[in-house]
Design brief:
single chain; alpha/beta; seven-stranded mixed β-sheet; 8 helices; 13 strands; globular; one-carbon metabolism
């Protein structure tokens, strides 16, 4: 039995689910999970269906045969098989998010394969190489930034990367690079967006006496830290938390939000809806 996932969105109208299920049943498929969301505000339907096929089938076969149905309903759709996505993880000096991703990857709980790690610093090379992963050092200065970003794109191509994960990578990507990686790059922001932007977010949070510390995983866009939000994690804190204690709590939130966002993306549970996302958990 081969398992596939169909994700789609289209203008809302009657008959969509019937058309999808009729197609799958007609092709000898068995639905094992189905979720949908009707966005009444924008008149759009979002759907995710996992199914198995008893006979031989491929993504190309299903795509070709489904195209006529999709045209009738103006669907934007995608069939996926169980081939794991390949990840390029970008880091700087902080290693907590990389460490968490490596643990989940080796435990088989990430839903993806980490292909390599790249960084603008050498600090995390030992962590990556201890996990048996290639480590690419790409120094970045204002003068070398165009060459560094081109090298990143070369790595994406050379290693057949499906998703770039910015795991506390402390460099702002150019608008051009963000556009080229649209929908294929996830960042973790060290606060519960929107709020506390810029340097020293935990010091800002401490100064304001916050009661929650959070982290936000979102898609990368040219608008800094304004991309569609995939997941957010918050932790309750109080007046007794020092800036260092807040940072400790925040690191846990960052690692958890990022790993969830990566897994959900790779399991095709995240569908873009303009500046928002639909997440089928």
């Amino acid at each position: 039995m081969t398992q596939f996932t169909l994700t789609l969105h289209c203008p809302e109208r009657s008959g969509i689910v019937h058309a999808v299920t009729t197609f799958l049943v007609g092709n000898g498929c068995d639905i094992v999970e189905h979720q949908q969301f009707d966005d009444d505000v924008h008149g759009e339907l979002f759907l995710r269906t996992e199914f198995t096929c008893a006979g031989p089938a491929t993504v190309d076969d299903l795509t070709r045969e489904f195209d006529l149905v999709a045209r009738d309903y103006a669907m934007r759709y995608r069939f996926s098989d169980r081939t794991p996505d390949r990840l390029l993880v970008m880091v700087s000096k902080a290693g907590h998010c990389l460490n968490d991703l490596l643990f989940r990857w080796r435990a088989g709980a990430l839903g993806a394969e980490i292909a390599l790690v790249a960084s603008n610093h050498e600090d995390l090379r030992p962590m990556a190489e201890a996990a048996g992963l290639p480590f690419e050092h790409i120094p970045v200065t204002p003068a070398t930034k165009p060459e560094a970003e081109q090298r990143l794109l070369d790595l994406v191509r050379e290693h057949d990367i499906d998703l770039v994960v910015l795991a506390r990578y402390m460099q702002v990507l150019s608008d051009e690079l963000c556009q080229k990686l649209q929908g294929r790059a996830i960042n973790i922001h060290h606060s519960f967006l929107p709020g506390f932007k810029g340097a020293k977010p935990y010091a800002q949070a401490y100064d304001r006496g916050v009661k929650y510390v959070g982290a936000t995983a979102h898609y990368v866009t040219p608008e800094l830290d304004e991309g569609p939000i995939i997941e957010q994690e918050v932790q309750r804190v109080d007046h007794s938390h020092s800036p260092r204690a807040l940072a400790t709590v925040g690191r846990d939130a960052e690692a958890l939000a990022l790993s969830r966002a990566v897994r959900w993306h790779c399991e095709r549970r995240v569908l873009l809806n303009g500046t928002r996302t639909v997440v089928f958990r």
